[in-house]
Each structure stands twice: as structure tokens, then as C-alpha cells.
Amino acid sequence: MILRAYRAANGLSQEALAAILGYSKSYVALIESRRRTPHDVAGRRHIARALGLPFHLLGVTDPGDADFAALVHFGDSVIRLAEIARQSGRAVEAVNELWPLTARLEARAAEGLLERDTLLLLASARLALGVSLGTVLPEERLTCAAVWTGKALLLAQHLDDAPFLAHTLRMHGNELRKAGRLAAAVARLDHAVAVSSDPAGHGSALALLARASGDAGLSDKFDTAVDGCRRALDSGAENGILLNPFSLREIHARGLLALDRPSDALRALHPSGAEEPAAPQWRVIEAVTTGEVLAATGERAGSAKALRTAITTAEQRRLPHQLQRAIRAAERGELMSIADAGRTALRRIRRLLAPVV
């Protein structure tokens, strides 16, 4: 039946089909009339390969299926380890781990061969890859990170997994913000706040909404989101990178500066305790924000010190867009030697991260 349908679709005679397969015309006729059936796996794989048909149509598996099954089996572990690497300040390693997994899953999806669980794995891989790219790409290429998290969201909206959808909305909204798509970022993060049911996820969504609202100049929404974060922390909902006193202090100060409230931002930077960041890159992020705030309030010496620290550590951590922020802050504060040092560091990073040709 399959051979007859293939011949009809391609306008082939039995003789022409036999030539493609390396069989006799009489053998093809026997198969089509069901008087002979190639039962051996090798024969069926030969037919599938010669005609470019999916292996499963002939009741056999692709020889690569065993490898793919192993990849799926360990896929969750690859994503978890990549996330640990990213949060530990090794985002380049995370990208290197995630790219092969994502590419294999994308190829499989293009063939229409993914079950629901594997689609969830693909969505998770897309999301983790996008977030990791958003850590290591320079500002002019951050749209690429938002594209990957957006592709994850397309799947998440159809997978009937509410916690994963909320997480994906949070991460996609943040990548949109970094790419300068502020209205879309605020919309996604508003949605994330609405659908995040667990306290930690809800608080994390509010933290990201505060950051996007500040960048977008939405003062009332920013203040409301920051107040919501504080209430979440007071209720014991602290959670990792986003919802903790250190990160909230940086988000608050940065938002106030974006809203043209530099004096308030300076006050927000002074901590009540000696909090430590949940991830190394947050120390860089805070140093850049501190430099920006001090430059905006005319404290040139303090700004120069903070920006030097930010530039040195951002280069070590391979964080090009934080270097770009530091350069802009130095230029606004007329700290030209600091800006030059930042540009030199940025060139070194770009050479390091450039593809090998």
C-alpha cells in the first residue's frame, strides 16, 4: 500500500520504483499485492531511506532513535546543569551545553515526531538557551535571546502546565525588556504576575515587573510592584536570584534612576544589612547601577570606583551588555578614561566570543 501510494504521488512506474530500490520489478509487484512482505528490519529501513520516508511508516525505528532516546532521558539533567552554570556566572558554558540539545530537539520537532513530554523538554531547552544567551550577548544582539524565549512561550501556551507557563512568561518578559521591547515586556510580566500561583514565583514576577516598569517610565506600576516584592519577602517567599534583599535593592535603585529620581536612588542603594547576591553576576549588575546613580548625583570619585569594579568583573564574567551599561554611565559622568577602559574590555570580550571561522 505504501509503495503504491508513493508511486502514484510521484508518477512512477513499478519498473522505475524498482530501480530506485535496487529490486526487481516482479518483487515490487509482489510487495504491492501483499503477496510478499519485507519483514526484516534492515529491508524496511532500506526502503524508508531510499524513498526518503519516515521510518515509522514502515514499522521500524530510525537507527538514530536509540541515541535520541538517551538524549531525551538526560535532557532535563542537561538543562538543570546549564542553569546552575549560568547562575554561577558561567553562562558561556551553559550556552555550549544547551545548544546541541536544543538543535537535536528542534530537528526532531520539524519532523513532527515529538510527544508531549518531549515538547515540554524542547520548550524548557528553548527557554534556558534564550536566558543564557541574554546573559552573554551584547545589547545589539539581545533580540536573539528574546526570540528563543518567545519560541518557548509558543509551546508553553499549549502544554497545559500552568507553573511552566508562568515561569516562561517571566523569563520572556525579562528578555523583551533587555532587548528594549518595554511595552511587550510589561504586558508579559503583568500576565506572569496574574498567573504565578506560588508565592516565590509571584514575587519573582513582581521583581521583573518592577524592573521593566522603571525602564518604561511607569512610575505608579513600578512603586506598586516594589511594594509587592517587599510584602513577598516579609512573608518569607524569598526565592533565589530575583526575590531577595540584594536584588530588590538593585532593582529599586535602578528603577528610581530611570524615573529621574536620582536622590531617592542613592538612598535606596544604602543597605540595612550586609546581603550577599544570589548569583555572581548580580554583584556586577549592582556595581554598574551604583556607578550610574553616583554619576547622576555628581559623586564622580565614587562613580569611578564602582564603574572600574564593574568593568573588571564584567569582563571576567563575560557580560558584554553590563560593560555597555558601564560605558554609558562613564560617558554621562564625563569619566572618559573609565569609558575607554570599558570599550577596550568590550573589544576583548567580543574577540573571545566571536565564532571561529
Name the shape in a single word. Answer: elongated
Helicity range:
over 70%
Q: What's the overall average pLDDT, rounded?
A: 87
Give the beta-strand count. 0
Order of helices and strands: HHHHHHHHHHHHHHHHHH
Class of secondary structure makeup: mainly alpha
β content, as a range?
Answer: under 5%
Please state the CA-atom Rg, rounded to the nearest Å. 27 Å
Q: What is the helix tally?
A: 18
Task: Give the terminus-to-terminus CA distance.
Answer: 49 Å
The major β-sheet equals: none
In the predicted model, the low-confidence regions spanning at least 5 consecutive residues are none
> What is the count of distinct domains?
4
What this model shows, in words?
This protein has 357 residues and is mainly alpha-helical. The protein folds into 4 domains: 2-58, 434 Repressor (Amino-terminal Domain) (Orthogonal Bundle), CATH 1.10.260; 65-160, no CATH class; 178-278, no CATH class; 282-357, no CATH class. It is built from 18 helices and no strands. The protein has helices at 2-10, 14-21, 25-32, 41-51, 65-87, 91-110, 116-136, 142-156, 162-178, 182-195, 199-216, 219-234, 245-258, 262-269, 280-296, 300-317, 320-332, 336-353. Helix 14 (262-269) packs across helix 15 (280-296), helix 15 packs antiparallel against helix 16 and helix 16 (300-317) runs antiparallel to helix 17 (320-332). The longest helix is centred in the N-terminal third of the chain and has 23 residues, at 65-87. The mean pLDDT is 87.
